[in-house]
Amino acid sequence: QVQLVESGGGSVQAGGSLRLSCVVSGSIDSTYSMGWFRQAPGQKREGVATSDIATTTSYADSVKGRFTISKDPTNNTVYLQMNSLKPEDTAMYYCAADARPWVRLQPGDFDYWGQGTQVTVSS
Fold first, then answer.
1. Residue 75 and residue 29: Cα distance in Å, rounded?
2. Quick check: 68 and 81 in contact, CB under 8 A?
3. DSSP-assigned letter for residue 105
4. Which segments of the chain are extended strands (E)?
5. How many CB atoms are located within 10 Å of the residue 5 CB?
6. How does DSSP classify residue 61?
7. Cβ partners under 8 Å of residue 74, min gap 6
8. Tens-place pLDDT, residues 80-96
9. CA-CA-CA-CA torsion for 89, 59, 26, 24, nearest 10 degrees?
10. Measured between alpha carbons, how far is 59 from 48 in angstroms, rounded to an integer?
């Protein structure tokens, strides 16, 4: 079993920053791929960023240059640094993990999910 617990969401004005954290525990090791996804009301869940076994990262076009995914194996935590936030970034953000070493920015590529943390950006 793999457990993922997100934190760090909140309300911020446009142009602000937030850092999301995801603490990972259970039957997981450094070979897992990690990802961040988001889902706005009435919308499909979409990929935001992934980091694979080689720590190669990929980002949705809408967040490139503004968001950064990183992993800290010393405390089993994955981060999503979000800068220059826009109102369209408002969504529930989910952390995800998968045993495959390489993944796409697709929800179907991930088996394990956290409960989510809400991010609200006001104009």
1. 12
2. yes
3. S
4. 2-7, 10-13, 18-26, 33-39, 46-51, 57-59, 67-72, 77-82, 91-98, 112-113, 117-122
5. 14
6. T
7. none
8. 999 999 999 999 999 99
9. -50
10. 6
Each residue's pLDDT tens digit, 42-61: 999 999 999 988 789 999 99
Mean pLDDT calculated for residue range 23-52? 92
What is the pLDDT at residue 27? 81
Dist CA 48 CA 58 (whole Å) = 8
Both tokens of 76, joined, read: 């089993």
Which residues share a beta bridge with 117? 93
Rounded Cα–Cα distance for residues 47 and 25 (Å) = 22
Q: Tokens 């190669």 appear where?
A: 56
Residues in the chain: 123
CB atoms within 10 A of CB 68: 16
pLDDT for 110: 95
Distance of CA 105 to the CA centre of its chain: 11
